[in-house]
């Protein structure tokens, strides 16, 4: 395993028992920890992205590893190693049974919006991290603590060169709230994001499609106050680039070749395609 991850807790792939498939390259798994406790986890699998996985997962895994504890961020659990060469093939996070906020049956609470604003400020202004994919599907509900957990940082940026066009988190939070309350996803597409932020803010009425624990006007007031504070000096990007405790992602080393081939697909005739690269 690379030196930059040697202090991570690890687990061998063979020790993860599959319980369910949650999505493409995402499983629900179970393992027994060193104290004999059964841990239910979500396993994100990198090996399916052969032959060029390292450049894809390097920033995500190292950023995840370096995130400090926060009550509204999902934490890294273990780095998963394959059994023969101890190659990194993915990672696990704690399974959160409350689901995500795209479930419109969940009553959306004003305090959860405030938690979202606080954790986005923490990422942007303290750590210099732009999440770039805030959305109800990426916000978990921890029913044990009654707090939200922001997760899925594979689009996150920790420097200007990694920034995606029109994906700043102030706009992202605005579109997220508009999706949470009126249930409107039409402004999340790229061309709509560029022109939609003011349209969403200026809409006279947001007709809620879910139950709320406060008036829509109060949700909008909290959002607008935060947005004005974040954009007041016109230097939103400058503040992000000059974060107080920025996370630095190490440069990716030149990976060695491996002796054991891995299949990463099949030919038109169904024959497996093998690769022994990084």
TrEMBL record:
<dbReference type="InterPro" id="IPR011009">
    <property type="entry name" value="Kinase-like_dom_sf"/>
</dbReference>
<protein>
    <recommendedName>
        <fullName>Protein kinase domain-containing protein</fullName>
    </recommendedName>
</protein>
<feature type="domain" description="Protein kinase">
    <location>
        <begin position="16"/>
        <end position="278"/>
    </location>
</feature>
<dbReference type="InterPro" id="IPR000719">
    <property type="entry name" value="Prot_kinase_dom"/>
</dbReference>
<dbReference type="GO" id="GO:0004672">
    <property type="term" value="F:protein kinase activity"/>
</dbReference>
<dbReference type="GO" id="GO:0005524">
    <property type="term" value="F:ATP binding"/>
</dbReference>
